[in-house]
Amino acid sequence: MASIEQDFEIRIDYHKKIKDVFREVSKVVVGQDYMINRLLIGLFTQGHILLEGVPGLAKTLTINTLAKVLDLKFQRIQFTPDLLPADLIGTMIYNQRESEFEVKKGPIFANIILADEINRSPAKVQSALLECMQEKQVTIGETTFLLDKPFLVLATQNPIEHEGTYPLPEAQVDRFMMKVYIQYLSKELELEMMRRMTNMNFYPDINAVLNKYDIFAIRNEINKVTISETLEKYIIELVFATRFPQEYGLKNEAHYIQYGVSPRASIHLNLAAKAMAFLDARNYVLPEDIKEVMPDVFNHRIVLNYEAEADGITTMQIIQNILNNVPISKE
Fold first, then answer.
1. Are 171 and 259 within one domain?
2. Which of 41, 133, 205, 245 has the fewest CB atoms within 10 Å distance of its CB?
3. Are the C-beta atoms of residues 259 and 173 closer than 8 Å to each other?
4. 128 vs 276, which has greater pLDDT?
5. What is each CA distance from 244 to 45, 168, 224, 237, 250, in whole angstroms?
6. In total, how many domains does the chain have?
7. Element at 155 (helix H, strand E)
8. Is pLDDT of 11 > 90?
9. CATH code where residue 269 lies
10. CA 3 to CA 9: how far, in whole Å?
11. Under 8 Å between Cβ of 256 and 305
12. Same domain as 153, residue 49
């Protein structure tokens, strides 16, 4: 009984701290609670996030501020066409004084990595980053270095420019847990943001709320969140509806979907739903948790054909139709 009460007190304490995280970040950033929520889900479930939005939506500022609040090391890497893998992971340099080669580590050795405009760099650099994401280690010369934990990659793409870009292949994009679309602020929030950012004396005092050990503990708490067998099967039905839409009465969608989601989608949807439940101060998953995060988990994994593009059909429309037509318990 004491253990149960102790676990309850621990959860209450972390829920309070997570609210404090949102409050601290909001001292600097206006109206990006949705983005912060998804970044925390990725961090707490060891899933990397792909952010997409037009310039000026405070993506970098939000991530940098969040890293300070979480007391984690942050590195921003601007991806450019002339970037080399060594600029990312590091290289061997010759030390004339010691007459030997030594390792110079790159910016990848941090807890939170912002890969800004990842589609600006060629395939070699992209693959070097994606290897770090998958293996959580870097090999320089003959030495392999484990990356520090927690390790989270947040990659951004600019959707309005395609000149001189190298789009990520579908198989590589699949390595990201979620693809999050960042929208414009409302009129009221943009007015508040404008007033705040045009004040040249605006230097808010940011306090660290969590640390890496708290993050590891929260991961353990999320692992304890329960999900019923019915909802587990519901996740599988949603996944299979993207692969075999005609079997679910989605005849129109069957004409537009070229490839359904991969097995990573079911894993990440399960984890994201558990994290969403935890952030909502629950130790069990509701159907609403699955429906809330499914678009972010699925939208970069469903590949549409040219007919969909010609008819102006978007992935989000497909996802919404799947949610509307796939019941929780399939007859």
1. no
2. 205
3. no
4. 276
5. 28, 25, 32, 10, 9
6. 2
7. strand 152-157
8. no
9. 1.10.8.80
10. 10
11. yes
12. yes
